Here is the input.
Amino acid sequence: MTTVLTTKKRPSKQGMLDNVMRQFNNAADIVGLNPNIRKILEVTNNELVVHFPVRMDDGEVEIFTGYRVQHNNALGPYKGGLRYHPTVDIDAARALAMWMTWKTSLAGLPYGGAKGGIQLDPTKYSQDELQRITRRFTYALGDNIGPELDIPAPDVNTNSQTMAWILDTYMSTKSPNERSKNLHVVTGKPIGAGGSEGRDRATGYGVFLTIKFWAEHKKLELKNKKFIVQGFGNVGYWAAHFLSKEGAILTAVQDAYGSLYNEKGICPEHLLDYTKANKGSIIGYSRAGNIENSEFFGLECDICIPAALGNQITVDNAPVIKASLIAEGANGPTDVKAEEILLDRGIDIIPDILCNAGGVIGSYFEWLQNRNGEIWDLKEVLERLERKMKESFNKVAHKTKTQKIDMRTAAFVIAIERLEETYVQRGIFP
Ligand code: NAD
Here is the structure.
């Protein structure tokens, strides 16, 4: 694999890579991070770009480009999702891999950070084609992933089925007596294929928990609070499900196809059933009205949950946001300039590396169970998840208060300090 310097090539507009580097440098300055360790952390360890052929249903061959960026593994194996989306490129993978390093460090997990995916629009391919694309991508990644090296998981447009195909392909390339030792090469698998109870809802449940902890901190009730969700996939749906159960009211949803609004409330379960029968789209749902996408972030509400893609909250919409809390289910949804505007306006932000960490914590539980031949029930998984999320939230809240910094900076400071300590103790080879 090649090792490439990542930070010299800045995208012209403020992209996700620029964002994560600014967030990192801001916190590194506050930490007074050792300059040599800063040099290590501001670049990625390994970057793999693969081009691979796949036969389409019509018999033609198409060439796809896949990415896997491994940012840092000082704390343990690389860990992070695989995304199938037209916006996947090397810079997006670099940025998302870096966020994973800070997220796993903050959560106190024995993992580093990685991310990858394929640049494609999955709606243009059949299930059979997606299966062949996934299997051939896995084959192309070869031994650059592995249960003790780099462990992928689901992300945008990938799911437990995608993970099952990866697992099966990876295991099939091993000798028979090695196969079952590799069950933990991916997490987010279906239960029947070695997945864990609760991994499906872990990210959304974690988003909900951080909102609950925030409300407790502020001595606020979640009952009757209005919230809006951008992205009604794995993260958006489960976050909405748990918040609604707590008595909060979902008033608007936006997905890749459009936006819906009902001030009296939208039932997440009912909307999910509708999307399942409607190719994953919320459009046409009869119990809410359509609104323009541009109206979404300016809607009257208490809590806003971006749970789709990066860079959705920008200088263009930050000034009109009415919510008093932004809970970042997505990775990198708020750009740095928008964040300054929001903080100036007194709006709290639970940062992605804290807010959506339930996903990687749930993945860690799955990995541990596979490694140790254990099976935990749902109650145990959710209880352990809550304990871990609470620990991280409290650490961030304490740092925010004692150092008088915002929550994102506090989260980054904690993550960076843990990594710095590791490097100081271990030294640099040779
Ligand atoms: P998903 O594929 O299940 O759902 C994505 C949703 O976003 C869909 O409803 C889609 O229609 C919507 N969407 C896509 N483009 C959009 C756009 N331009 N505007 C509005 N909506 C759009 O993906 P997911 O797993 O729920 O991931 C969502 C976000 O959460 C991503 O940023 C991902 O990195 C992050 N995340 C996911 C996990 C996880 O466990 N799945 C963990 C941590 C963070």
